[in-house]
Amino acid sequence: MSDKGYFGPYGGRYVPEVLRRAVEEIEAAFEEAQQDSSFQKELMRLQKEFIGRPTPLLYAENSSRFLKGADIYIKMEGLAHTGAHKINNAMGQALLAKRMGKTRVIAETGAGQHGLATAAACAKLGLDCTIYMGAVDVDRQQPNVATMELFGAHVVPVHTGSRTLKDAINEAFRDWAASFVDTFYIIGSALGPSPYPDMVRTFQSVIGFEVRAQLAERQLTPDALVACVGGGSNAIGFFAPYLDTEIPRLIGVEAGGRGPAPGDHAARMTGDGARTGIVHGYKSRFLLTEDGQVAPTHSISAGLDYPGIGPQLAALGRSGRIEFRRAGDQEALEALQFFARHEGVVFALESAHAGAAAIALARSLPRGKVVVVNMSGRGDKDLFITAPYFRPTEWAAFLRRELEALQNKEALRRQAPAGPEVHYG
Amino acid sequence: MDEIRLMAHLVAGYPDVSGCLAAAIGLVEGGASYLEVQIPFSDPSADGPAIQNACAQALAEGYSVAQALDFIAELHIRYPNIALFVMTYASIVVTPGVESFVRTLARRGVSGIIVPDLPFDADEGLDAACRREGTITAIPVAAPSMRAERLAHMAALGRPYLYAALRTGITGKSTTIDEETLRFLGACSAGGSRVLGGFGIRSHAQALAVRSLVHAVVVGSAFVEVISHANELYHNSPRARDEAIRTNLAHGVQELVSGPP
Asked: pTM above 0.90?
């Protein structure tokens, strides 16, 4: 837990006064809900029935044998409903929104995973849902937009700033400043003004507690945990049971992108690209220009290119409890292929960064050591990024055929006289 | 007299270096008593779309904080009797260091600084730095949604100025002045601060309704829109554009201050 909203030098509640009351109300409601067994019981029921928890812990025996080092275990968080860990937090906060009597939910999303999870949770709980998404992301993540709309969410493209995740966050804050009387803002990562970092960690800590129990069933204790870190919600939830212990090693993996030049990566804890700053309501390590403007970033995975990092992770990096590494675009793609071939598991590109670090770590450790990597998401969503990379010619031909078929169908529909209407029910 | 004391807001670097100077000249010629210069930040989440787009455009042209500081220094030399306030976001203030940023502003003749995402009770040393300089003051921003206790606490600080955000929400849309708003403005001035009432005011009539309750009325989005309009009309001729910005703003301010002719 934070100390009055701070984790060492980071965290805090740097919001304009207009938003302060809304944030304080959430803090009070969250603390109450934590003590309320009926809330916890309902959340556990939804985790089991809707999210599909517990997610499995897979012993990656082929990979471990091949690497001739430590035993790798994969926490299959990507098997959670909607394809990633995001649903743990989205459902927790949506349930809290309902408990507070809010009727409308807003959320930001980058790649679309948090938007998808929030839209699904809102559909399930009967809450009106608006998702802010940068216009650039809307264009490149159409499959997720389509599914969010299928869940009944209103997806609003954000045309300001860099038209990506950080601008979607700004727009959500803007909406909230005028709407908080009936609206709850579900932040998707372990960042933002206090109490969000504590709240998101709490809802995501189900990952870490399950891992601890699943290892204990096999009479194992972990030597190292490895997770990718964008804002850091999967990492902090996965690491949560071990933050105050000395073992296991906790390893966070940032996006190394194309290389170390400014704008080519999103590494805040490794290298010297980051500064301590205050953005989006909290103090942490950010990629900023000399003037304090938020700097451009790059990663092949949309979920790792946010310019800041959750304040608790930044503090734990500073204290040395968490070791930070980086993995580049290429390493992530190679790790994705590695686990697909050896284990029949497709990591999301974000999680593949953790996979790459886990491979390197397992190689360097003796047999019998236990390395657990969190596969925070599954890779189905990345088909439009991975297919052009792994099979460029075939994929291009496929897309051309699909487009032609669609255009022919459209042309036929326009030529043909209207057929009989179909009525359901 | 139905004259309004006006604090006119403008974005440094928008539409560009010469255009924002033309804007400042127009605002002062029209009769503004105070200038609030916003130093653009990449993520201005407390601003409405008009100001946000103005900031984004200035930054897209490569406008830097150093240029904004030069602009401010020039304004102070031109108009030593107009009080200059700076509005910006925490990141711009804490990145060079609060102390150093405040000193830089003070040396350029700025008399107040407004940072909406630095709360008065967690301001990273902003108020202390201003007190050390002596010629500049930190101006807290109040909102009607604040708890009564907190607002009372803020007002009791007795800062020279207090910025009151009149509408729950974001700059740009219209303001209606109801009982609740009047109570809010009363609470803002309880500690003797001169209240700068802002957000959403677009007409002399609206300004008249709050005039007796505030020290000065702040107008921002409406002027940014005037600049945007001139910028679109005369995008091929910077000189004609600057002239349009200056005269249109001067008229706009005049009308706000004194009412329609």
From this structure: yes
